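Subgroup meeting minutes
Present: P.N., E.W., G.H.
Scribe: E.W.

1. P.N. recapped why we're keeping a running log of single-chain structure predictions: easier to compare across weeks, and new members can see raw inputs and outputs side by side.
2. G.H. added today's entry (382 aa).
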Amino acid sequence: MGESTGIHGVTIEDQWEVRRRKGIENWQHGLRFLGKALIPGTKRYKSKGFDSIRDATAWAETARTRMAGGLAPTVNCRVDLYQEEYLANLSAKGASPFYCRQAQVMFDAMAYIGAKDVSDRGFPVKIEEWLNQLMVQTEAGGVVRRRVSKPLSNATKNRYLTQVKAFTRYCFVRGYCGRDVMVGVKKYKEAKMVKKTFTIEQLQLLLSDRFRDQEFWLPVTLMLMAGLRIGEAMHLEWSDILFAQMRIQVRLKPDLYRLKNARERTVVMQPELLAILKPMAQTAGFVVPDRIRKVKPTWGYWFKKLIKAVGIPVDDGLSAHSCRHTYISLMIAAGTDIFWVSRQVGHGNILVTQGYAGNADAYRDAVESWPEKKRFYLRSSF
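Output recorded in log:
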């Protein structure tokens, strides 16, 4: 029994059905679907077996198209032949430097583990072994440096898996391989974790004037009181702060900072934050000093230095992004409408905001005395 497709000269044969009709015993064995591509100018076919009709159809249509163009029906899709083209395509599409570096790490890893041919049936197995065994560690330039024994989280594995899938899909769509071998490879299940946030006691210490001389105090204060991401806080300009309207504009700045999802927004400025920023206001320039703003790799160092000075354990699982989680949890605990909070922090999906607000219950008793909703009142409550 054969089934033709939209391309002339392509037939998909269900071999199990053929054997069943012929009364062959044990007809359910071997590869089920046979993709057949007619050789131009002849009555002969090039054929290949597959487990799924989709793979058989993709291979047969690609083989027929290649033969019609005078090319060999199938070729091995070597990674090293197409990786530079793929990386150039990423850059042309405007992919972030981090994403491009991660793609380069993926190619280095594939060369290391011997995953050289995208059309090889063993390609997904090699990728899975790489993700589940010793992981790679990279330098700032994205070059594989050494292998370490610490396993990656499932979230990190999925990022690399997505990169591999994007590359194999790229090769398949352009006809470099007969089928996409990574189709059907499932992502790793990610464990749901409650995001780490500051305690009320830690916040009262962190926001006090005692640590105002610490260089990272101001960006941390912006993140805690306005829910900004670290990149948004570091690239905030004085012209973005509208003191009369008590608003902060989070604007797209292509030359300086790639705003997540390109979603601009206006954030309500808390009265306590207004009291901090107004005496410091300037006519132009950045709110955060250039000394720490310009060197992104050191941001984590400055954050750890600050919380160490405050007396918060450095290995407590807190990061600069914990400030944003803390802000959302505090606002929800204070009874603020979650849709309002979601708009404030620039989330496209309210479910993301709910996930960030996992520690809201821990703050409810502390915020009962706050005078109004949508008000940060930690500095005034000492």
